[in-house]
Amino acid sequence: MSKTRKLVIVGDSAFAQIAYEYFTWDSEYEVAGFSVEAPFLKQSELCGLPLVPFETLEHYFPPADHDVYAAVVYTQLNRLRARLSGTAKQKGYKLASYVSSKAFVWRNVRIGEHCFIFENNVVQPFVCLGNDVVLWSGNHIGHHSSIGDHCFVSSHVVVSGFVEVGKYCFLGVNTTLVNNIKIADDCWIGPAVVLTRDTKAGSLYKPVKAELSPISTYSYFKVAE
After folding, report:
1. Mean of the pLDDT values across residues 137-147?
2. If pLDDT is split at 50, 70 and 90, which confidence band does 220 have?
3. How far apart are CA 143 and CA 7, in angstroms?
4. CATH number for domain 5-96, candidates 3.30.365.10, 2.40.128.90, 3.40.1410.10, 3.40.50.20
5. Of 26, 27, 34, which is closest to residue 4 (Cα–Cα)?
6. Closest-CA residue to 35 (of 14, 51, 22)
7. Which residue, among 92, 89, 20, has the nearest Cα to 50 in the 3D structure?
8. CATH 2.160.10.10 fits 97-200, yes or no
9. Rounded to two decimals, what is the model's pTM?
10. In 3D, which of 96, 86, 98, 80 has the Cα closest to residue 22?
11. 3-state helix, strand, coil in the chain (%, to 5)
12. How confident is residue 217, by pLDDT bands cut at 50, 70 and 90?
C-alpha cells in the first residue's frame, strides 16, 4: 500500500507497538515517530523511530505534515486517550483513524474521527460509531446501534440491534448486549457479562466468578476416570 501521509503515534505501550504494525502494513500512513508526556519519557526510540515529549511534539513533527493517533487503551475510563487526542487536536493535528482491511464495515456505517477498528469486526448497516472509539478484534456491532464517543470495546463482544452505548464506556471480552437497550455514559461492563436492560450512568458490572462444582466432569458426563 502506497504511503501518502505521515503519522505520529502518541503512547509507548503495547497498544502503541500494535498500532505501529497496523498503520505500517495496512494503511496509507507512514509512521514517523512516537510521543509520550515528558514525565513518562524513559527512552529515545521505539520501533527504531524517535520517541519525543508530547508537550513539544509540534517542534519535532509539524502539524502541517503529520497526523496523530493516541494509542492508549481504557486508562482512567478512557479519559487519558480522550485528553491526549483532544490536546493533539488543539495543537493543530488532524486525528488519524484506522480500519482494518479485514474488517467488515457496511457502506452506510458512520465513523467518527480517531477510531481504531481491528480485524474481524462486523459492523452492520446503519451503525454509528462516535469519535475516539476502539473496536478490538472480533466484535459484532448490530444494525441501527450506536457506540458513543471515547468507548473501548474489547474482543468478541456482541452488541445486538438498536442498542445505544453512551460515552466513555468499556465493554469487556465476551460481553453481550441484547437488542433495544441503552447503556448510559461511563459504564464498565466486565468480561462475559450479559445485559438485558438499560443501565444507569457510572454503573460497574463485574463478571460472575467461575465456581468449582462439587460434581466432577466424570460424574456429570458419566465417563470413566
Report:
1. 98
2. confident
3. 32
4. 3.40.50.20
5. 27
6. 51
7. 20
8. yes
9. 0.94
10. 98
11. 15, 30, 55
12. low
